[in-house]
Amino acid sequence: MSIFEYNGSALVAMVGKNCFAIASDRRLGVQLQTVATDFQRIFKIHDKLFVGLAGLATDAQTLYQRLVFRHKLYQLREERDMKPETFASLVSAILYEKRFGPYFCQPVIAGLGDEDKPFICTMDSIGAKELAKDFVVAGTASESLYGACESMFKPDMEPEELFETISQALLSSVDRDCLSGWGGHVYVV
Amino acid sequence: MECVFGMVGKEFAVVVADSSAVHSILVHKSNEDKIMLLDSHKLMGASGEPGDRAQFTEYVQKNVALYHFRNGIPLTTAAAANFTRGELATALRKNPYSVNIVLAGYDKGIGPSLYYIDYIATLHKVDKAAFGYGSYFSLAMMDRHYHKDMSVEEAIELVDKCIIEIRSRLVVAPPNFVIKIVDKDGAREYAWRESVKDAPSVA
């Protein structure tokens, strides 16, 4: 089994009309065994910026602590919150630092930039950014998620409709993946 | 074949561990205590590589004591759990410890809490946790019978059910178990469940 599939995860982020939604599953497993059904994969960096971390849970926790640290330092120096685009570059740089001994994580970043323009992106475990205008996915259920999102997504959805769409996409995809599931957490901003 | 498990009850948490020290096919001793008292209100049950287990749990215990000496107040259970995870995470890519930990504690104002800490430093706050082959049986038993706010009697009944399952269904089941409990009055040994007693040493 791949190291990325050790704990199991599913993450998806979608863009709506002046809003975004980010959702994750809730399972924490150790290969075939489920350890917990309330594991948190999505973290708030500031009111308009969320990051989800798929992949190995221990690296997700370590990476989250490093990112919060860097953002707090940025806030102290610049006296403002980081823009999502800047944050994505920061995550990419931190991941590439460990190019030959990487964090086994795939981050999904979702935020509202200038004038509340939604921004989403994902990257692989060594920081290759993938910007998208509609949706991004990560985790063990990513292939199912691509399919579900492609068929269910419409541009410029209002928050309520976006919530429904992302929830249905997440739930139907994780139902086909044994390593992720047990409910979902959805954040709509 | 090491079994460690634990659960949270009403105003207490209980941790159970087997007590056999095994080297390949030989059982060195059957009354090894694998649940360390970190301080007056914390229990750390550990399973894994014997050397790492003893060394790492002692290291955490001494650091918890050091914090208390330096700062005059004890660490909370959450803080101790995060410290433990940090040490495991830092060592992970240099010289990893092969120790799985169930950390239970009682904090005034917060109540009892239980933390699952993997050998690769995955940390999660839980109501019930288990490691090892025994976890296949004890987690299933706990999923069926556990409910929030169990009394001590109910929890120990469930612990005994889990031990019976492990003894009857695990091929190399450990014969003896130690049960420790932590509540507002502190962390202490609750009972032993022995089916094989070590021969008394000759005076």
UniProtKB/TrEMBL annotation, chain A:
<dbReference type="InterPro" id="IPR029055">
    <property type="entry name" value="Ntn_hydrolases_N"/>
</dbReference>
<comment type="function">
    <text>Non-catalytic component of the proteasome, a multicatalytic proteinase complex which is characterized by its ability to cleave peptides with Arg, Phe, Tyr, Leu, and Glu adjacent to the leaving group at neutral or slightly basic pH. The proteasome has an ATP-dependent proteolytic activity.</text>
</comment>
<dbReference type="Pfam" id="PF00227">
    <property type="entry name" value="Proteasome"/>
</dbReference>
<dbReference type="InterPro" id="IPR033811">
    <property type="entry name" value="Proteasome_beta_3"/>
</dbReference>
<keyword id="KW-0963">Cytoplasm</keyword>
<keyword id="KW-0539">Nucleus</keyword>
<protein>
    <recommendedName>
        <fullName>Proteasome subunit beta</fullName>
    </recommendedName>
</protein>
<comment type="similarity">
    <text>Belongs to the peptidase T1B family.</text>
</comment>
<dbReference type="InterPro" id="IPR016050">
    <property type="entry name" value="Proteasome_bsu_CS"/>
</dbReference>
<dbReference type="GO" id="GO:0005634">
    <property type="term" value="C:nucleus"/>
</dbReference>
<dbReference type="GO" id="GO:0019774">
    <property type="term" value="C:proteasome core complex, beta-subunit complex"/>
</dbReference>
<keyword id="KW-0647">Proteasome</keyword>
<dbReference type="GO" id="GO:0005737">
    <property type="term" value="C:cytoplasm"/>
</dbReference>
<dbReference type="GO" id="GO:0043161">
    <property type="term" value="P:proteasome-mediated ubiquitin-dependent protein catabolic process"/>
</dbReference>
<dbReference type="InterPro" id="IPR001353">
    <property type="entry name" value="Proteasome_sua/b"/>
</dbReference>
<comment type="subunit">
    <text>Component of the proteasome complex.</text>
</comment>
<comment type="function">
    <text>Component of the proteasome, a multicatalytic proteinase complex which is characterized by its ability to cleave peptides with Arg, Phe, Tyr, Leu, and Glu adjacent to the leaving group at neutral or slightly basic pH. The proteasome has an ATP-dependent proteolytic activity.</text>
</comment>
<dbReference type="InterPro" id="IPR023333">
    <property type="entry name" value="Proteasome_suB-type"/>
</dbReference>
From TrEMBL, chain B:
<dbReference type="GO" id="GO:0005839">
    <property type="term" value="C:proteasome core complex"/>
</dbReference>
<keyword id="KW-0647">Proteasome</keyword>
<dbReference type="GO" id="GO:0005634">
    <property type="term" value="C:nucleus"/>
</dbReference>
<dbReference type="InterPro" id="IPR035206">
    <property type="entry name" value="Proteasome_beta2"/>
</dbReference>
<protein>
    <recommendedName>
        <fullName>Proteasome subunit beta</fullName>
    </recommendedName>
</protein>
<comment type="subunit">
    <text>Component of the proteasome complex.</text>
</comment>
<dbReference type="InterPro" id="IPR050115">
    <property type="entry name" value="Proteasome_alpha"/>
</dbReference>
<dbReference type="GO" id="GO:0010498">
    <property type="term" value="P:proteasomal protein catabolic process"/>
</dbReference>
<dbReference type="InterPro" id="IPR023333">
    <property type="entry name" value="Proteasome_suB-type"/>
</dbReference>
<dbReference type="InterPro" id="IPR029055">
    <property type="entry name" value="Ntn_hydrolases_N"/>
</dbReference>
<dbReference type="InterPro" id="IPR001353">
    <property type="entry name" value="Proteasome_sua/b"/>
</dbReference>
<comment type="similarity">
    <text>Belongs to the peptidase T1B family.</text>
</comment>
<comment type="function">
    <text>Non-catalytic component of the proteasome, a multicatalytic proteinase complex which is characterized by its ability to cleave peptides with Arg, Phe, Tyr, Leu, and Glu adjacent to the leaving group at neutral or slightly basic pH. The proteasome has an ATP-dependent proteolytic activity.</text>
</comment>
<dbReference type="Pfam" id="PF00227">
    <property type="entry name" value="Proteasome"/>
</dbReference>
<dbReference type="GO" id="GO:0005737">
    <property type="term" value="C:cytoplasm"/>
</dbReference>
<keyword id="KW-0539">Nucleus</keyword>
<comment type="function">
    <text>Component of the proteasome, a multicatalytic proteinase complex which is characterized by its ability to cleave peptides with Arg, Phe, Tyr, Leu, and Glu adjacent to the leaving group at neutral or slightly basic pH. The proteasome has an ATP-dependent proteolytic activity.</text>
</comment>
<keyword id="KW-0963">Cytoplasm</keyword>
<comment type="subunit">
    <text>Component of the 20S core complex of the 26S proteasome. The 26S proteasome is composed of a core protease (CP), known as the 20S proteasome, capped at one or both ends by the 19S regulatory particle (RP/PA700). The 20S proteasome core is composed of 28 subunits that are arranged in four stacked rings, resulting in a barrel-shaped structure. The two end rings are each formed by seven alpha subunits, and the two central rings are each formed by seven beta subunits. The catalytic chamber with the active sites is on the inside of the barrel.</text>
</comment>
